[in-house]
Design brief:
By secondary structure, the protein is an all-alpha fold. The chain is built from ten helices and two strands, in the order H-H-H-E-H-E-H-H-H-H-H-H. It is elongated and about 65 Å long. The two termini are about 35 Å apart.
């Protein structure tokens, strides 16, 4: 699939004035993946907005570039339209190249500067801290993180998952006591699932991925806001 899609790193912004966002020079697609004609879903548009907000917060975009790209996201009707808001801002993952998938569905932000790397490291730490500090680790990270940042959202995700898991373990142990140990096997499975999901959450955060814990899809209420 090499050469089928343009390399996003080739993007060079055109100079503009403060009163007008700089237009983006978009290289033409040499081939079009069939799914690019599908309409943009609410989840895809919301995810694209969060990625642009992260890029702006990390200094990858100035105010005028951010406004121009955000307008493209809001006006996008198809996935092809949505992709154009990410030219020059995302890397094309090797897996996407191999499968022939267009990268802007879940773009990976270009790693630039120490701030973005430190941000992903702090987000990953928020997920791993429960191993040594229970819910207080991610809570502390969330309290000191910049409002609206990737770190603050990931710390909120980690805290909410750990809180829900704690409630489940408490009720499960009470039920196991009343059942004279009849639910010990369930507690064992729950512990393995908690361990795996905690590790996965930390790994995904280190990669800069906006991953949703499957437990949070069932328990949708939030103590800390994840957006």
């Amino acid at each position: 699939m090499t050469g089928q899609f343009p390399q996003y790193s080739d993007y060079v912004p055109v100079q503009g004035t403060p009163a007008q966002p700089r237009p983006m020079r978009v290289p033409p697609l040499q081939a079009v993946h069939p799914s690019l004609g599908l309409p943009v879903t609410f989840e895809e548009r919301e995810r694209a907005e969060r990625f642009l907000a992260d890029a702006y917060a990390d200094g990858r975009l100035n105010e005028f570039e951010f406004d121009g790209r955000m307008e493209q996201v809001l006006q996008a009707q198809t996935r092809k339209d949505l992709n154009q808001a990410f030219y020059g801002l995302v890397d094309v993952p090797s897996t996407s190249k191999a499968l022939g998938l267009h990268p802007a569905y879940r773009p990976t932000l270009v790693r630039q500067g120490g701030d973005s790397s430190a941000g992903r490291a702090a987000a990953a730490a928020a997920h791993f801290l429960p191993f040594v500090s229970w819910i207080f680790g991610p809570l502390g990270v969330n309290l000191v993180a910049t409002p609206g940042s990737y770190v603050k959202r990931e710390a909120a995700k980690a805290f909410n998952f750990q809180f829900v898991s704690t409630l489940f373990f408490v009720f499960a142990m009470i039920a196991n006591g009343f059942a004279d140990g009849g639910f010990t096997w369930l507690l064992g499975l729950a512990w393995v699932a908690w361990l795996a999901l905690t590790i996965i959450g930390g790994v995904k955060a280190a990669q800069g991925e906006d991953w949703t814990n499957p437990v949070r899809k069932v328990a949708r209420w939030e103590i800390l806001k994840e957006k």
